[in-house]
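Sanity check

After download, print the first record. It should look like this:
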Amino acid sequence: MVGIAVLAGLGATVLPQGLAAGESPATAPRPGQESLATFDALATLGLASQALSGPPRSEIETAASVEPTPTPSPSPTPTPEPPVCVDDPTHPLYCIYTVVSGDTLSGIAQKLAFSGNASLSAAEMLAQSNKPDVVSSDQIVPGQRLRVPKQSGILHTVLVPESLGEIAAAYGVTAEAIVAVAGNNIPDADSIRLGQDLLVPNPLKLPQVATTAAPPLETPQPQETPTVQPTPAPTDTPEPETPAATPTRSARRTPTVTPSPARTPRPGRASDFGFIWPVQGPISSTFGPSHPLGIDIDLYEDPNATIVAAKSGIVTFAGGNPCCSYGLYVVIDHGDGTQTLYAHFSSIAVQAGQSVARGQKIGNGGRTGYATGNHLHFEIRVDGKVVDPMLFLP
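Expected structure tokens:
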């Protein structure tokens, strides 16, 4: 038997066929009967055979057909991208940051490692660097693009004729400190120009914004016309005084410093100060604490409306950066201590140094810079100070 051969291979004694261990031929069981010893031997033989031959073929095939389940590797934790502040080669003093939902100026400053100082917070510096778009430190909206200085300080745009000393005094620093900033490109204190961006390092205060209007020129004081009383003939008749001339329509009057209600511009007619409306449209923002740099005239009915000079003068600046702040804008000096600024153009039709007449086209409205819709931002400055335009318009 095969089983007996296997036992022999395992070192068991091989007996003649039909005999169990300890039996002699004489005492062998009768045919058809098996002893308990033989049964145990066969059982032991079967286990040994299975141990040598391995599992049944069907079990092998089943095991081979079942592939082990791979252990899933843990997904890598995504690394948040650092906030992007895009450099502009044409404006080396700052980079451009696009506001996302949930941003505040203080949060942006923290993300970009932009710091303030003991006098001004980083949020205050960012707000001042982005006038007139940002008034309060947290008045920003998703999608708005902000100018972020490359170092701690404030970006100042030269909008009216002003000296470097005046700029330095407005921020509590020295002119030398501003000249020392390499990106300002100021070879000397007399070389700044209109429209130029300057980085004021380590400012100690913010410029004061005028909240009341000042008359552009001295206001003529009307005189009373004397009444000549008839006198008896013998009495010497006094010569009547020459009455003062009645002020003409172009004469300046002192504007009343009161809040100006929004009103619809009236075309064609000039004010006593010689200004006309630069464009027609509803007033969406008036001059005040929440909007201290001028007024906004909506252009939703005519998005690219023609913008005209509010008064005759010389264009002192025409250009800008479409990305942010005023966008494309024009500044006109009227030669009497007043200047006007027109912002957010889609295109500009004049250039610096050009003379323009009142009512002449200077460009087309748009939404360059920070503008949630097409509108004209309009400012009037008197001796370099921002005033309420509504007090000077018809």
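If your output differs, re-run the checksum step. Summary of this record's structure: The CA atoms of residues 236 and 345 lie 70 Å apart.
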